[in-house]
Amino acid sequence: MPRIFIFVGLILLLCLLLPPAIIARVRSTPNSNLPIHIIQDMAFQSKYKTQAVNPMFADGNTMRPPVTNAVARGETYLDAHLYDGVIDGQWANVLPSQIKMDFATLRRGQERFNIYCSVCHGISGGGNGIVNQRAMELVANTNGPVNGTVWVQAKNLVHDELVTVQPMGQVFNTITYGIRNMAGYGSQVPTEDRWAIAAYVKALQRSQIAQPSDVPAGTKVADHISPSPATTAVHNVASKGATIPASNSLTNPATSMLEGKL
Amino acid sequence: MSRFLFPRWSNAFLPLVILLGAIAPLYVGLFVAYGFSPKTLEAGYMPTQPVPYSHAVHAGKLGMDCRYCHTSVEKASFAAVPATQTCMNCHTQIHRESPKLEKVRSSYETGMPIEWVKVHKLADYAYFNHSAHVVRGVGCVECHGRIDQMTVVYRVAPLSMGWCLECHRNPTDRIRPPSMVTQMAWDQNKEMTQAQRVELQNLNNIHPNDNCSTCHR
Description:
The complex is a heterodimer. Chain A is mainly α. Chain A has helices spanning 3-28, 80-84, 103-121, 130-139, 161-164, 168-177, 191-208, 229-239, 253-261; strands at 86-87, 90-91, 178-179, 182-183. Chain A has a domain at 80-211: Cytochrome c-like domain (Cytochrome Bc1 Complex, Chain D, domain 2, Orthogonal Bundle), CATH 1.10.760.10. Chain A is 43% helix and 3% strand. In chain B, 42% of the residues lie in helices and 0% in strands. Chain B has helices at 13-35, 38-41, 55-61, 66-69, 84-91, 102-110, 130-134, 140-144, 161-169, 188-191, 194-203, 212-215. In chain B, helix 5 packs across helix 6. At the A-B interface, helix 1, helix 3, helix 4 and helix 8 of A face helix 1, helix 2, helix 5 and helix 11 of B.
């Protein structure tokens, strides 16, 4: 048999290995090639979905902001207590009537606090959240602050008297509109959740001056500490059917007090 | 003109051709099954974003909760890409002169949105709702993978119908306590026993539909 046939045959056989090799590589390595959708059917319809780019508008947004001066039903924001934390020109000391002060509200406040506030103020409110730590590191860099970072230590919400004396309404107002270097969270956190957070901040502060007499007779703190979030979650769903605590809440100083007090 | 005769050595091709003919269907079958699968064609999409934002830093190293930015995920069908304001909550101060944040700053000043590239694009005929899944305890990690370890986000899941149905038909091992949905390192299959997962499923009444109109409306 002429050599050439053997060579060509071998090369063709080797070529058969190429497709599997390419497939294996594509499957194992993320890459920036657009996904290939073989059967199109109606997979890509001529409609605009949420947050899509839209060439019809100057800002390219499909989602339109309300027309200037338009007021949506129920969004008059006239209730100063509910939206600003103010009653008759004074900071409110109580939750607005739309929100009930109960354990579920505080749990919700705790969960939301841990998501939005703890990044700077810390899980316990002490002012040393992870973003605060990182910012301090960047400022303390030996060759000067990295990329022009400036940072003022986040407030200690539970010990700083500037904060602890504030009524709940003022705390709510600060969360909503921001203060000094802190941005307002009015657009990120719904009104009810901001009130829940304000209530939880007050509870956190209260926990720092708790006395043994605050604990109802016969109750031990250990009763409220469970071994794993999984068992707690299952237990909580069973007993309350309500909000389930965040994982780290179990060791939180405020928790045991809340259980007994509110 | 004399007749053409195949040389004697060409007889060796006969068994070879039979062998190839036997293997070919298998080869083509495997090629189509793997090569045309959504896991090959659609998963692993890692587009370059306009701003080199790192989830590994924010969600991983700093441990920020997913919901700090993706605020709508528990209430809406979509997990909103945050407004530029959210970036600037911190970046008016931290790394405020970083060249990497140039587009964020100019978006903040002009009000023009940053054009982030969508990574998880679902076919338009499939109706998926984030809130329905997140509130009931399907962790972010189940579909998005370890986002907290990705410097550049890519698509882990094929987002194909077969892939959706895997979970819709057998959700027990893929659900967790709703309080743990954003905890990416937490794994219900390690932290909970089979019995606990079944209990959780029953308590939260998780019995997903798998009929056509559940997703195709």
